[in-house]
Amino acid sequence: MLNRYPLWKYLVICLVLAVGVIYALPNLYPEDPAVQISAASGAEAVDQQDLDRAISALENAGITPKSQELNGSTGLIRLTSNDQQLRAKELVSDTLGDNIIVALNLADATPAWLSSLGASPMKLGLDLRGGVHFQLEVDMDAAVKQRLEVNASAIKEMLREERIRYRGSEVNDGTLSLTFSDGDDLSKSRSLISRDFQDFEFDERDVERGSVLDLKLTATAVKQIQDYAVNQNLTTIRNRVNELGVSEPLVQRQGPNRIVVELPGVQDTAAAKRVLGATANLEFRLEATNDTPASEMESFAFRSQPGRTANIMKDVIISGDSVSSASTSFDESGRPQVNINLDGTGGSIMNRVTRAAIGRNMAVLFIEHKTRTRTTMEDGEKVEKRIPYTEKGLISLATIQSALGNRFRITGLDSPTEAKELSLLLRSGSLAAPIYFVQERTIGPSLGAENIASGILSVELGLLLVVLFMLARYKAFGIVANVALTANLAILIAAMSMLGATLTLPGIAGIVLTLGMAVDANVLIFERIREEMRTKMPLHQAIHTGFERAFTSIVDANITTLLVAVILFSIGSGPVKGFAVTLSIGILTSMFTAIMMSRGIINLAIGGKTLKKLWI
Description:
Multidrug efflux transporter AcrB transmembrane fold, four-stranded antiparallel beta sheet, Alpha-Beta Plaits, 4 domains, single chain, 47% helix, alpha+beta, 616 residues
């Protein structure tokens, strides 16, 4: 019979509609302004005592939190208004100290029953909901110092190979100083160094019981190092942002030594801050022997066992820069470990050194650059000063049983969280120089509240005008089209929520366009039905023919538009991509609701009935 659907089609329509409604519902629950606290290191955790201290400080200041949560190693304090966030953050930060990261957040307020189904609201871009804005500053002096330290290791290795004796070396104030007991050794060293290291300016001076050769980088070399540090850090931060899975982020250079990072719709801002700003790196060194001179070794404590120390060589075998990939797993005892793959050069160096050091211990040194902020009074005004410092600790000290190659593993980690963060940092690349957060803020709507309200109003007006037009033009069939249009909007929002798409202001424009295009299919179908009715075709046959003959035109029109949207997504960026995503999803959902759902409603209403007149 004409205009009858089999049962499975009705079930598909009901299932899609139910899923659309359920996964669109979380967008009706606005997020709560919140302050999130987490440990500065993945090896530590925030406990209930820390959370209680923070709550007490807020209550003493007259701020009553909405609720508090402790999820694993992270605490979350929900507030009642956005105005409380900044003040609450300052109070909690002053109360808990430097070992705790305090970040602004927007906490998900989706009911538990929806969350249990995996439903979550759409992510909103910086121009709608805002997000996190970080301004990072690259430590240029540290970049030069790190390069000097690398050159110092290479120069000392060269001098040992040439059997030239030196008393010691020191890197200070942008100068590498080598001390010699004999003037001939100094002259030979200067000749060798000038041959292989052409970026240095040389100066000689006499000291007690010897002479010193000072090596200082040229101005051109310093500028190249600083530019490299900023560009390398820019690449590394982009890799880390990609690891965080943030949609449509902005990472760009600003000025000579700063990097701007904007993370729209980010949930865990504290973790983002910890991962982006971490300047953690690894160094692999041999343990010092009993006859190693004191000037050639250093003593470090173990991170997991502060009372235990070990003496290791100053010379570095390889660093985290040689790591090509890293992943986490568990050893035979169920403890977390990081599996390391080295690049070709790093693997060759590791193999050469360990082959000659079988039976000795090799240490894995974890290095992390941090900063403390101190507020002082100068001329009656508060001035914040950033004090950088470095923490170094041993992760493991293991005996070399055989020569190592490109693959090995790091054990001795405290927790899976620490292993995961370490592997992420190694996988995304280490920073060429330390970076410091000079500004952190939550971005509000960049176009202002009035423009945001205008964008939402445009959707409402667009929907209202389409509804009124369809009712006036097609009467009862217009009601069917409007029901399908409403369902299309719900399914579109649900699809964007499920896919984790980020909604921006151009995305709202895509929704408005989708609402207008969604009824195009119904217009084609209804006009085709009218044409068939004018030929005196039976009403049921006219409905059936109208849907069948309009189908090809609908598919052709939507496919061409979809192709354009795909091209926009491929070659566009930022707002253009947001528009393309919304438009693409809207085309697919509108085809389903305009063709299948509309016909299903009509079939249920008049299928199998005797018709004398159609209200169309």
